[in-house]
Structure formats: structure tokens, C-alpha cells
Specification:
This protein has helices at about 5-10, 15-25, 25-35, 55, 80-90, 100-115, 120-130, 135-150, 170, 205-220, 235-245, 265-275, 290-300, 315-325, 335-340, 345-350, 360-370, 380-385; strands spanning about 15, 45, 50, 160, 180-185, 195-200, 225, 250, 275-280, 305-310, 330-335, 355. By secondary structure, the protein is an alpha/beta fold. The protein has 3 domains: about 5-55, Multidrug-efflux Transporter Regulator, Chain: A, Domain 2 (Orthogonal Bundle); about 80-150, no CATH class; about 160-385, Rossmann fold.
Length: about 400
């Protein structure tokens, strides 16, 4: 094949952005179609996804626009796994929106009566109502409320179920993980090598600068950086990644269609477009105060390690450290925090198995010992950051 033939062939090969433009849809909608196997890429790698024009031509896209948001397609609630989720979250309403209690209840029904989500509402409403000791009409009313909240999601939301190929394999192998995740953005990031960088909402200027150095070092080595979109260290993590061409995941404590804190709305939208936003909370639920520590378990679960750049004695980042250690993940703490006599938590976590670090080289060395990242960083990586101090 000569050069001209190759050039002609390449004219029919599109990147994700080019494919989305060709189909006149968002890249998020394209990701969903790939997830649903309605469009099959010809190549998927860490850095690029490629599509064959002929495959795109076979796909007819019809977006149903809402009256309030013309041009924005609405979430498809007719898929079987979406219906499963609607029924699951209806049941969850009767267990104070607690996944653990809900899953235990459902597992018991499956064990005793072979309960199935696919038995149809005609069978499931009377059955579940009797098991929950409530009126059928009340359960159905609750079901319709949950269903209505799902129908108001936009079509750039991707719902994945535990066990699905898109669902984080690392998270799926961790106890107590959410059965469903709501996603916006590049879903493939869930199964990339990633590290969580978190800390205080009211972080010092010095800690913010150190966070920028650390994140730059990680993304340069193709590591995805995760955080919780909170003010302070989390914000520095996400912004540094985006501003330097890196990849980032935001695990939020609200439903996927809400923005918190309000001042980070634009940042969240940018992550939806260039990275990935993850929520385990359905659109029907209010934002409870325990959502945020709960999501720390998910954030730790998708990450190979958690680095706490700065935190007070009551910081939510410490809940993240608890989850990480319980899940068998590495926890890294700056030596300066351990030396700080005004806080006691760093020494406690070092005794529990966390690692101390003084410079970027030590961070890479600790990560290099991780069984998944093992020897990912070579001598050149170590030499490049040899003199970059973090304390």
C-alpha cells in the first residue's frame, strides 16, 4: 500500500471528537453508544479511540429534546438495566438510601424466593410491597417518582452496573461497593491506572503549590489523578491536571446532574468534557451529609493509592485514608505533616501502615512497589524528580 492509498484510507478514520462532530452528537453521547455496543470502534488505546466512517454511517442518531433544554437529548429509560436501576433505587428509598441494607434485603429475597428484577412490575410490585410491609399503591407511587427523576437526566449520562465491563474492575473487587454508577465523560478512565490526591478544603498556599508539583509529575507519567471536586486540594488536583493536558476523575457527593460546590460548576463541566465525573447517587435522592464520606470509599476504591497533601484532625480526607487502608490501598502522607506537632493524625496513620514521603522521588518509589504499578517508573523518571522536594 503506497502513501496515497494510506492517506485515502485515513480520510475514513475518525477520532472520538471527529466522530461526534460527524454524527452531530456530544462526545459523552458517543461514549454511551460505544458502551451500549451500538457503535464499535476499530481501535481503543490509552490515548486514542478510532472509528471507521462506514460504521458511523450505519448509525442513525435520534435525540429527543426536552422542552426546557432544546437540543439536549434525554436519558433512555427503556433499557433493561436502566429499569433494573429504577427498581433498585425504589427499594433503596425504604432503607434510608443505604446501599448495604438494600443489597442485603435483595440478596435475601433472591436466596429465599428467587426474586428477579426482570419479573415485571405486575409481579414485583405486589411481591415487594408485601416484603416491605407497605401498600402497593405507595410503592408504585415511589417507583414513578424515581422513574421520573431518571427520565429528566440528559443523554450524556452513562449508567453502569457492577459487573459491567465499563465498571471499575478495581472497585468491583472491593467489598461494599455501589451496585450502580452514574458517569459523564470518558468512561474508559475508570479502568486506567489512577492515584487519588486529596486534602483540606482550606489548604495553605504552600500545600497547593506542592499539590501542583505532584500532579504534574503523575500526569506526565500517564497516571490518572482522582479527587472529590471539593475546594482546596481537590480543586488544585483537578485544575492542574486539566491545565497540563492530564486526565482526571471527579468522584462527587451529589447526583450526577447537580453541581457542588457552586463555585466549581465550570470545573465540573470541564471534567465532564475532558475527563470523567462519577456519582453513585441517583437523581431521585436528596444530598445527604453522609454522601460525601460515603463517596470517599468509591474514590479510594477506583484508585491504586491515596495521597493526603494536607488535612486537619476532622478532615474528610481522613475518612478516605480509613477506606484506603481497609481496601488494601497505599496511603501516602508528607513528612512535614508527620512533623507537625499541632496535629496527631499523621503519626496514627503511619502506625496503621501509611507511607511517609519527603520528595517526589519517594512518591514514585512507593508507587513503584504497588503490584499493579510495579516498576512503572524507570531510572529516568527517578532521576528527573530526584531533587524535587515536597517538604
Amino acid at each position: 500500500m503506497d502513501r496515497n492509498e494510506i492517506k485515502a484510507l485515513m480520510n475514513d478514520i475518525y477520532t472520538s471528537r471527529e466522530a461526534a462532530e460527524y454524527l452531530q452528537i456530544s462526545t459523552q453521547r458517543l461514549n454511551q453508544l460505544v458502551h451500549d455496543q451500538q457503535i464499535i470502534p476499530i481501535k481503543v488505546s490509552k490515548s486514542v479511540t478510532l472509528f471507521w466512517k462506514e460504521d458511523l454511517d450505519k448509525r442513525t442518531i435520534t435525540n429527543v429534546s426536552s422542552n426546557n433544554n432544546p437540543g439536549i437529548g434525554m436519558f433512555d429509560i427503556n433499557n433493561a438495566y436502566v429499569r433494573d436501576a429504577i427498581l433498585y433505587f425504589t427499594i433503596q428509598q425504604y432503607f434510608n438510601c443505604n446501599d448495604k441494607k438494600t443489597c442485603e434485603f435483595i440478596e435475601q429475597l433472591e436466596k429465599v424466593d428467587n426474586f428477579s428484577f426482570r419479573s415485571g412490575l405486575k409481579n414485583n410490585i405486589p411481591y415487594l410491597s408485601s416484603k416491605l410491609n407497605i401498600l402497593e399503591k405507595d410503592f408504585y407511587k415511589c417507583y414513578l417518582r424515581v422513574k421520573d427523576s431518571f427520565s429528566k437526566l440528559t443523554d450524556d449520562v452513562i449508567l453502569v452496573k457492577k459487573g459491567d465491563g465499563v465498571y471499575s474492575k478495581l472497585l468491583a473487587n472491593t467489598d461494599g461497593t455501589p451496585p450502580f454508577l452514574f458517569l459523564k465523560g470518558n468512561v474508559h478512565l475508570l479502568n486506567e491506572k489512577s492515584v487519588c490526591v486529596v486534602g483540606s478544603r482550606n489548604a495553605s498556599v504552600e500545600s497547593m503549590k506542592k499539590t501542583e508539583k505532584l500532579v504534574k509529575a503523575l500526569i506526565k507519567r500517564n497516571i490518572v489523578v482522582n479527587a472529590g471536586l471539593a475546594k482546596g486540594i481537590d480543586t488544585a488536583t483537578h485544575k492542574t491536571a486539566l491545565e497540563n493536558g492530564g486526565r482526571t476523575i471527579a468522584v462527587i457527593g451529589t447526583p450526577i446532574n447537580q453541581y457542588y460546590p457552586k463555585e466549581n460548576k465550570d470545573l465540573q463541566i470541564s471534567i465532564e468534557e475532558k475527563g470523567l465525573v462519577v456519582s453513585q447517587f441517583p437523581p431521585c435522592n436528596p444530598v445527604y451529609r453522609w454522601n460525601f464520606p460515603t463517596r470517599n470509599g468509591t474514590m479510594s476504591g477506583i484508585s491504586l493509592a491515596t495521597i493526603i497533601m494536607e488535612a486537619g484532625e476532622t478532615s474528610g480526607a481522613l475518612r478516605q485514608a480509613d477506606y484506603a487502608l481497609k481496601q488494601g490501598r497505599d496511603v501516602l502522607i508528607p513528612q512535614s505533616a508527620i512533623n507537625n506537632s499541632s496535629i496527631s493524625w499523621p503519626k496514627k496513620y503511619i502506625k496503621k501502615g501509611a507511607h511517609a514521603f519527603k520528595n517526589l522521588k519517594e512518591v514514585l518509589q512507593i508507587l513503584n512497589d504497588n503490584e499493579v504499578l510495579y516498576n512503572l517508573f524507570d531510572n529516568d523518571d527517578m532521576e528527573e524528580v530526584n531533587n524535587v522536594e515536597m517538604d
